[in-house]
Amino acid sequence: MADLAQLTHLLRRTEYIARPSRIAALQGGTLDAAIDDILNFPATPAVPSYLQSDIDGEGWDQYVFATKWWFDRMAFDSTRPLQEKMTMFWHGHFTSSNDKVNSTYAMVKQNQLYRVNAVGNFQALTQAMAIEPAMLVYLDNQDNTKGSPNENFARELMELFTLGVGNYAESDVEASARAWTGYGLTPWQSSMPTYMHYEYHDNQHDKTNKTFFGKTQAWTGPQIIDEILTNPTKKLVASKFIVTKLWEYFAHPGPPQAVLDALVPSFAADWNIKTLLKAMFLRSEFYATAATQGLLRSPVEWIVAVLYSSNMRSDVLDPQWYTDGMGQTLFQPPNVAGWKNNAYWINSSTIGARADFAQYVAYRLHSTNNYNNLADKTLTTIQQAIDIVVNLFGLAPLSSVTLNAMTTYMTAQRAAEPWVSWAEIDNLLTMGLLAPEMHQA
Amino acid sequence: MLDPDISTADARALLSFSDNDPSGYSRRRFLQMVGWGVGGGAVLGGLGSTVFPNMVPGQLRDAWAAGPIGPNDNILVLVGMYGGNDGLNTVVPFNNPLYYQYRSNIAIPGNQALHLDGNVGLHPKLTFLKSLYDQQEVAIVQGVGYPNPDLSHFNSMATWLQGNASTQNLLTGWIGRWLDGLGGAEDLFKAAVIGSDLPLSFVGQSRRGIAIPDWGFDFGGRTQPNDMRLYNAVKSLSSTSAGRGPWFDAFAQAEHTQIDVAQMVAPVFAGDIPDGSLVRPMTVAARLINANIGLRVIDASFDNFDTHSDEPNDHEARMEEFDAGLQAFFGTLDTQWRSRVTILTFSEFGRTPWSNDSLGTDHGTSNNHFVIGANVKGGLYGQQPSLAGLDQWDRMDFNVDFRSLYSTVIDGILGGGSSTVLGGNYPTIDLFRPAGTVGAPIHAIAPSVATDFVGMVPARLIDTRDPGGSPIGPQGSITVHVAGYQGVPNTAVAAVLNVTAVGATSASYVTVWPTGGGRPQTSTLNVNGNDVVPNLVITKLGDSGQVDIYNNAGTVDCVVDVVGYFQEASASRFTSMSPARVLDTRTGTGAPQAPIGPASSIDVQVGGQLGVDAKADSVVMNVTVTDPTGTGFITVWPTGTTMPTASNLNFVPGQTVPNLVIAKLGKGKVSIYNSGGASQVLADVLGYFKSGDGARLTAIAPARLLDTRTDGGASKPVAQTPLVLPVVGRRGVPTNSVTAVVLNVTATEGTSNGYVTAFPSGETAPLASNLNVRAGDTRANLVIAKVGADGAVALFNSAGTVHLIADVVGYFTD
User: Fold this and answer.
1) In chain B, positions 437-476, which contact chain A (CB-CB < 8 Å)?
2) What would the pLDDT profile of A71-81 be if each residue is shown by its tens digit?
């Protein structure tokens, strides 16, 4: 029998929310079995046909559609939401932004690559993302040619995607840039339904010798990735870089040394992401207080919890209009380093955007559902009204501070307006959505 | 191919706060704030901020001040250009052929740049900024960077946002640490960022700035009783620690802050706000200043500067938005704030001097930045790094540490404390006007005209060592009245000055130029430090008949004597001669064969001698002192008048020192006084002024014609083959009728002792010298050089190699 507190924490971190149906399904088995279940994804469905090509004049509509499609997959449509959470991880790691790529088709195609390979092999995923059209555009490798190297991709490949700054020399960047010359896009033809296709241009590839990590040979682009991930020294650096980032994504900032010692060498040995995640979720440190209290929900994670608990799909709540203000827009990471966590999400401006969305959701809740009992003191006591909200948003166990704040509010509100008040309903629901319990991951 | 019009990468570096540090507060502070103990008064990180003594959970925020700033407080507005702005296409070195060689596919044509002087101009879209520059309200600091730059956006931006001497990955930023150091009750409204993220720069050890979305707040900004009840309830979520860990409490605290901020700034967002990625935040910034809620620092930044490709279109759009943002800001700002607000630009790095084949530039290093405001002394500061000898992917060196920009604004307008905030001492740049003064009104310098000369008995205009005076500071300048003073009439349009630099505390250069015209990239004389260096100066007069004198480094005193002036009305005109020695005390030429003794003088007949017209009023001579036995100075003045308080050249024992002298004659003679020791004195006449026929001078604002250290794409020192320097048709010198040009020639990095001679191109070099070269030294001298038939002047170097720099200050026409 899995411990309920551990299972709840595991589900909140891997599937956004500890859904009652999932707890019911997994509680009877062991933690090990629950983790296997969480990691065992069904076949990945194809992306909606509307997103399978760029449609002239509908770029914006396709972009909004893609955003809602992905939010709904996270909140409702995926039976194993960890696949979406890992897709989001790779989206923030191997970043590309529609701001520059300017093709929803290419962004969704890249998104699907990350989805299909979400817990696959890291080396294979790195090779695939390098020649994905969205990446070729985003980091300019389509312009990287023998006569005119462009180092943008080559630099970020090591700095942000695999090794971290300080683990390579400037000359390695230049050698890698030359190795990556010629990996570009098919020249556009008007007859093509969509124009972004990877194509290798042999005549633009620099075939001369380059010296990379001290080895001189006629490096190709894929050989560079293989070297980074098989070089006995560098692969451990890369493994630590990725293990740290994943631990900070699921557990808390600053992984314990024991965790790194246990996970880094084995991940570097086979680059199997699924094996790595299972080992992470089995660590006792994953269930320690440092982890359970260690993360805030990102805007996307909070929105997913809001969609799910309010049982309103993104077509109803339109979260895409609020994400920019909260600081996290799907398909538009702020820069090639992606998003960070915790304090990154909280300042007066981003909190204001969360509060705006909370008020809108509260209004939609009362207008599409009957929450009269929240505000009718003949039907519910203050405590009962609070319990309704706590259950609705999964806030239990409620902290005494939040309970006091809600109680004080309800007392004052009922004294001021001793009738059934829409304001009271809206405000109590808003308080539920703004309670820190709703924002702790 | 892709649509070439796609936007560039959204390169904004969202360096916010430490991942490990709740709310960006220090953990220690936070624990104390939420009542978890830790001793009060602890000092963190050596940055001097006492951890808030006054934090009482649940009470403090409502009590925080929000009120008018002090009557003498100034305001800093930071404009970030995220992604790495291309400084070379922002402040365009249109006079540098290397710029066009390196950037043939993206260079701004010289005739499109908005010229600031003869060398640099602004991007064509920066028309409003140019108008501010013309009002002398824009300081352009060139060559800003830092040692060992990293080409990554994130590390580079971290460096800029941290702004600390330490290379460690600090968790605080420079504005945050400035907030830490303010002391007193914490004020939520001292520093704000317009936007949805709070950059690292605004996070301190114990205090932080606030973020205000550019669309304003909905939640928190209303005032109905129902809303207020909700706001009070949400605020009470942070009344005490919930015991759920620091992030839980930090989130509650941030919700409290959000409501306080929203309530305060709600009125600012009433009414329309024009859109635009910088126009909107700059409009909001100006409104926040007008509201006077206590803000001293506001960040209004924009992005998309990472122009790896398609730069001509993308960068032009950025420049257009920058200019529009400035215009929106000053158009919104109440005039009462006009002299109390300063704008400072920043960007994580500049870009490569070479363009790439994608019509873009890659991550570079040093950059140009703007300091803008009515309290700013407009002009060019710092120095553009040399482009010479750079290969593709090479980066430029830097000349000004970016932390000097920070110390300049911290000490200049934010009340001081830069060394604490920055963790080290970075010299400030003297670019602010004295408190309470503002920029000169809009004006244009008078056009240059042909003039005649009137010689004078030398007279002293200023000596900064006099009581009440003070030396010129580093990158500082003084303004000297000329017309209307010491007998120079108000009708004078140019003057002949002898400028002497005394007591320099470091190697530096001094530039003299017409007041109001914007300081040119030229130099008048060079000092090594602790030496006394004079030079003759012919300069056009600027506003109100004044000239400005700039000192680049250290401090230096200045002595300025006027020896004559030029006016449009008829007076004397110039006739140039082959050099003729009218005096040599070593041989008895022109005077007894004996050195001039200490504190004594001789008279020398010049008029009517060796081709000098007997009716000449004034003569132009190179006067040289050699083998002096003491330290002293030489004064030349018209015989028959009282010796004035003035000097022409200065020496120490054993030196050979020349200087150009323009001396009025008294009955055809000059008197020459030697103040100390016994000195041998030589004089070569180069020309004379007399009434009637001769050439007229047109004085112009100084402009650089030659710099062999960088011109033509490489460092090319001059050896014994004369260098041909075309002058006509360049830098304001017309193509027709020019007989001679007035140059200030500087010799530097000479390998041997020798001399430099200027002569008409195409003729044979005469046995005469204009400038003595000493190995390793830097010396300048004024030269009146006849122009050859090909419109050029030849410069001959007698020994070794030397670098030559030539600035033109005027020309003669028949």
Assistant:
1) none
2) 999 999 999 99
Average pLDDT of B301-305?
92
Distance of residue B48 Cα from the nearest chain A Cα, in angstroms:
24
Q: What is the ipTM of this complex?
A: 0.95
Cis bond upstream, residue A397 (ω within 30): yes
Q: Closest Cα partner for A426 from A410, A437, A403, A404?
A: A410
Given a contact cutoff of 8 angstroms between Cβ atoms, the answer to whether B706 and B741 are in contact is no
Contact present, A27 and A59 (Cβ < 8 Å) = no
pTM of the model: 0.63
What six digits make up the tokens of A125? 């995923």
| Residue A358: how many other CB atoms lie within 10 Å | 24
* Ordered DSSP codes for A319-380: GGGTHHHHT-BTTB-SSTT----GGGG-SHHHHHHHHHHHHHHHHHHHHHS--HHHH-TTT-
CA distances from B187 to B190, B497, B692 (A): 6, 54, 74
Asked if A339 and A93 count as a contact pair (C-beta separation under 8 A), the reply is no
Is the distance from CB of B647 to CB of B534 less than 8 angstroms?
yes
State the pLDDT at residue B289.
Answer: 93
Q: Give yes or no for residue B46 having a pLDDT over 50.
A: no
Strands B191-194 and B210-212: parallel
With bands split at pLDDT 50, 70 and 90, how would you rate the model's confidence at B8?
Answer: very low
How far apart are the CA of A98 and the nearest CA of chain B, in angstroms?
A: 9
Q: How many CB atoms lie within 10 A of CB B322?
A: 27
Cα A273 from Cα A291, distance rounded (Å): 20
User: Which residues of chain B are within 8 Å of residue A404 when distances are taken between CB atoms?
Assistant: 236, 239
Rounded to whole angstroms, the Cα distance separating B685 from B271 reads: 74
Distance CA B254, CA B34 (A): 13
Tokens coding B294? 């206590």
pLDDT recorded at residue A189: 66
Those residues whose C-beta lies under 8 Å from the C-beta of residue B531, and which sit 6 or more positions away, are B504
Could you write out the DSSP letters of every residue in B614-630? TT-SEEEEEEEEES-SS
The minimal CB distance from A150 to the residues B8, B24, B308 is found for B308
Please, which pLDDT band fits residue B106 given cuts at 50, 70 and 90? very high
- Number of Cβ within a 10 Å radius of residue B732: 16
Residues forming beta bridges with residue B462, ordered by sequence position:
B560
Give DSSP secondary structure letters for B351-389: B-SS--TTS---B-S-EEEEEESTTB--EEEE-PPP-TT
SS3 A94: coil
Q: How many beta-carbon pairs under 8 angstroms link A with B?
A: 242
> Nearest CA to B225 among A253, A25, A427?
A427
Q: From CA A406, how far away is CA A410, in angstroms rounded?
A: 6
pLDDT at A106 exceeding the cut of 70: yes
Mean local confidence (pLDDT), A404-426: 92
Report d(CA B662, CA B632) in Å as an integer: 20
Q: How far apart are CA A273 and CA A39, in angstroms?
A: 10
β-pair partners for A198: A185
> Does B55 score more than 80 pLDDT?
no
Question: What is the tens place of the pLDDT at every residue in A138-149?
Answer: 998 998 999 888
> Are B686 and B760 spatial neighbours (Cβ–Cβ below 8 Å)?
no
Q: Which residues of A95-133 are buried (b: 16+ CB within 10 A; e: fewer)?
A: bbbbbbbbbbbbbbbbbbbbbebbbbebbebbebbbbbb
Please report the DSSP string for B118-138 in residue order. SS-EE-TT-HHHHHHHHTT-E
**Test the A interface: residue of B169, B201, B248 with most A CBs within 10 Å:** B248
Q: Within the 305-364 window of chain B, which residues sit less than 8 Å (CB to CB) from chain A?
A: 308-309, 356-358, 362
Answer yes or no: are the C-beta atoms of B465 and B534 closer than 8 Å. Answer: no
pLDDT of residue A48: 97
